[in-house]
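We store sequence, tokenised fold; for instance:
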Amino acid sequence: MRALSTQRAKLAEAIWKLSWEPEPLLAAMSYHRARGEDELEAAAYWGGRWYMPRVFPQRVERERSKAFGRAPEDAPDRFARWLVPWLAPRLAKPEKLKLVDIRRWLGWFEKIQSATFDDWHAVLERVQIARVHRGKPLATKQGFCPFCAAPLEVQYAGDMLVAARCTATNARMPMHAGDFLHRNMFAARPTGRAFNAFTSSTPDFYCARCGAKHRARKTSAEYTIQMQCPRCKHGYTAGLFDALWKSMCERHERT
């Protein structure tokens, strides 16, 4: 019993420091397999396949991978629910966390974008803003979500955009996207030329400033999106969509 408790404690520490290396998830799979916890093993497996596609699959035996079958549509949410008991003891006291740990898990929450993490995500975001932007006046503005045109709740610390949340899906902006979103929404002048465009698998993109839908032209396999708003003529840069795509957009697609 003591050996099992020690093994779990070591595993919990490894999962707390989860980065983009597969070892903690591989160890977790072995742990669950030894205990006959097939569903928990599968949740850890799909987390690795989904978020470490370049390094994780080749570390799992082929026969074992086949046994898991195709990824379920709710694989991100299953992975999120699997993480909860490993994270809960430390996240119960967010004010005592180191900034490096806060940023690590904000990064994971932004990547996974599961409703399971919404409360923790909001709390860690507030703690980080309070520490990093101490003394700066906070203000809330409203824009439009680039992926559904619902109201986008935007928070500033001084003149820096530090947080944004789609009120329809609760999808939150990645930490690194603040500057892109500011320049593409509240900057005084357009930041992209009228002829700028990018390709996408979906035609649904909206002006973050006024909510108008961007013009989209269907090509053979995808869409070409014009990056100047047809209503307010505000120009956009592809960096905005690159910065938000792998987080906010994926949550919209799953909602």
